[in-house]
Write a structure and sequence with these properties.
This protein is mainly alpha-helical. 75% of the residues lie in helices and 12% in strands. It has a two-stranded antiparallel ribbon with strand order 1-2. Strand 1 and strand 2 form a beta hairpin. The protein starts with a helix and ends with a helix. 26% of the residues are buried. The model has no long low-confidence stretch (mean pLDDT 80).
Length: 103
């Protein structure tokens, strides 16, 4: 279980690192897309700092709930898989927004 908890912690730091990188790489006056419609159009945007804070809170919540569930049931694979997928999704989101803001 120790490896699973370490993996979750490393993934949490990867999410935070991706967010800090995105914060520094985007213009200060920009706003970030927060929800897309079925047609692919952005429904609403949030200020940069609010969007980053939102992703941190969601990331921490997902990893925390998963860690509690996996530790309670002694299922380290669940925690490792969810941690890796969560980190990948959040980092890719930040990279996509940086790419969008740079264009």
């Amino acid at each position: 279980m120790l490896i699973a908890n370490i993996t979750a912690a490393v993934c949490a730091f990867a999410i935070a690192g991706g967010g800090l990188w995105a914060y520094g790489a985007t213009p200060a006056e920009g706003s970030w897309p927060m929800q897309w419609g079925i047609t692919g159009d952005v429904n609403w945007r949030a200020p940069r700092i609010a969007a980053l804070a939102f992703t941190y809170v969601i990331g921490a919540f997902v990893l925390g709930v998963t860690a509690l569930a996996a530790n309670g049931r002694n299922q380290p694979f669940l925690l490792i898989a969810t941690s890796l997928v969560s980190a990948l999704v959040f980092v890719l989101y930040h990279a996509a927004v940086v790419r969008d803001q740079s264009a």
